[in-house]
Amino acid sequence: MIANYYQHNKHLRTLEYKVGLKATDRNGLPAGYGEITVNIPQYYGVKISAKQVDNYAEITIENSGNGNDYFVLSKVLEEGLRIYLPETRFELQGFESKTIKTIGLETEKIKPYNAQFIVTSEGNQNISASVTLPIVKN
Predict the structure, then answer these.
(1) pLDDT digits over 42-51, tens only?
(2) pLDDT grade, residue 12 (50/70/90)?
(3) Quick one: which of 52, 80, 76 has its CA closest to 136?
């Protein structure tokens, strides 16, 4: 079986499978050969989760779609909270996940702050997910 990606237009990708056929007659002798092509469109999906570990946050992003996609990670921070994302654009294979550890967690006061993390698919801008994480500086 051969698998290739074909890009038909900017937003629709199709995975093409070619399946070889060998026909035999009732005596088991070769009667012919053929090939069928099956096209499976790419679907897009993303999941996100986050947790605080000591003085940093771990953000896990999963490509829940069936093909490769690029993702953009962004943040919305409550005033007084500073967190830096070492990586904000990355590619994930279908069903692959990635964990990103934040750096430079700083707060103005010792109190809970909220950090929202948002991940968006570049392959389909309508696909995004977000998570809000309460953070306390230790």
Answers:
(1) 889 999 999 9
(2) low
(3) 52
